[in-house]
TrEMBL record:
Spans traversing the lipid bilayer: none
Upper taxonomic lineage: Bacteria, Bacillati, Bacillota, Bacilli, Lactobacillales
Family named by the database record: Belongs to the D-isomer specific 2-hydroxyacid dehydrogenase family.
Record keywords, A-Z: NAD, Oxidoreductase
Annotated Pfam families: 2-Hacid_dh, 2-Hacid_dh_C
Domain D-isomer specific 2-hydroxyacid dehydrogenase NAD-binding: 111-296
PANTHER family per UniProt: 2-HYDROXYACID DEHYDROGENASE HOMOLOG 1-RELATED
Full protein name: D-2-hydroxyacid dehydrogenase
Species name: Levilactobacillus fujinensis
Amino-acid biosynthesis as UniProt keyword: no
Domain D-isomer specific 2-hydroxyacid dehydrogenase catalytic: 13-328
């Protein structure tokens, strides 16, 4: 058996080869993301895996079908960059990794929230100018005196609820699907209540037509002036220009963003700062905003689990089995 992996990072390579050796499977790799242009690299292989960060067009699935490949294992949670209809049309079963390390992403969200809650960016900006004074504008609040609102309570949202609850915060959650296991850590409520009452709002929902721009100008105006917005999910959940306007107008206090709506064009790349999107530059210049390049998942455990779970799914489907992670 042979499986080809696209978008493999150098830190993933050892795990890929170790899995291949343990499972008696030849694992081929490339650092290039999957596209219709390089789908031919999988010729001669029985299955494929991809990081799933860049959009994939129908041509890639058609090429896999020509090679007799019947699955594509995505090594992340989101599959919004895949064309599920086109994949099904060409007999390709797509799988994702629904839970590789929820704690990794949850911890990054909490880290960014604490950074903003304690005004660290503001202090850094002042000190860079030789100003070591502090005043009432940067007085903070302990986390146990905060109300945290979670939009989305899947694996990552649930892990986030547990961390904030352990820190003593009051945690509210909005999710159309109730999970009784989270009762010790959160109280379920509606979106309106979260927008109006939460000091920290953290996004953990998939990108769907119903969730795109769930945080728009109207939602931002309902939030408290001291509210901090955290996005560990998908950039398109937030109307970026509306967020910029709200921050400038001091309608909310800050934002922590591990993902942006237009990130595909420059995240994970090296390019002159002047060539990055203007909205990124505008946000990045704000001392009450912290941006990371979609790296909340990037821990040793998450990388190992993501790759191994994806390859296990690929092997299962190749050998005629069914994966519980199938998304189409």
């Amino acid at each position: 058996m042979k499986i080809f992996c696209y978008g493999v990072l150098s830190v993933e390579e050892p795990y890929a080869q170790a899995w291949g050796k343990a499972n008696h499977v030849e694992v081929g790799t490339t650092s290039s993301e999957l596209s219709a242009d390089n789908a031919e690299l999988a010729k001669g292989y029985n299955g494929v895996s991809s990081k799933g960060i860049t959009p994939v067009t129908e041509g890639a699935y058609a090429t896999f079908e020509k090679f007799g490949i019947k699955q594509l294992a995505i090594r992340q949670v989101g599959v919004d960059n895949q064309d599920l209809v086109a994949a099904s049309k060409h007999g390709i079963t797509l799988t994702n990794v629904a839970s590789y390390s929820p704690r990794a992403i949850a911890e990054m969200g909490v880290t960014q929230a604490m950074y903003l809650l304690r005004h660290i960016g503001v202090y850094q900006e002042r000190m860079a100018a030789g100003n070591f004074a502090w005043d009432g504008s940067t007085i903070s609040t302990e986390i146990f005196n905060c109300t945290v609102g979670l939009i989305g309570a899947g694996h990552i949202g649930g892990a986030t609820a547990q961390i904030y609850s352990a820190l003593g915060a009051k945690v509210l959650t909005y999710d159309p699907f109730y999970d009784a296991a989270l009762e010790p850590y959160t109280t379920y409520t509606d979106l309106e209540t979260i927008l109006k009452e939460a000091d920290i709002i953290s996004l953990h929902t998939p990108l769907l037509p119903s969730t795109k721009n769930i945080i728009d100008a109207a939602a931002l105006k309902k939030m408290k002036a001291n509210a901090i917005l955290i996005n560990m999910a998908r950039g398109e959940l937030i109307d970026t220009q509306a967020l910029i306007d709200a921050l400038k107008a001091k309608e909310i206090a800050g934002a922590g963003l591990d993902t942006l709506a237009n990130e595909v064009g420059f995240f994970r790349l090296k390019k002159p700062y002047a060539e990055t999107p203007k909205d990124f530059q505008e946000l990045n210049a704000m001392s009450n905003v912290v941006i990371t390049p979609h790296v909340a998942f990037f821990t040793k455990l998450a990388v190992k689990n993501g790759l191994e779970i994806a390859l296990n799914d690929a092997k299962t489907i190749i050998t005629g089995g069914r994966s519980r992670h199938a998304v189409n």
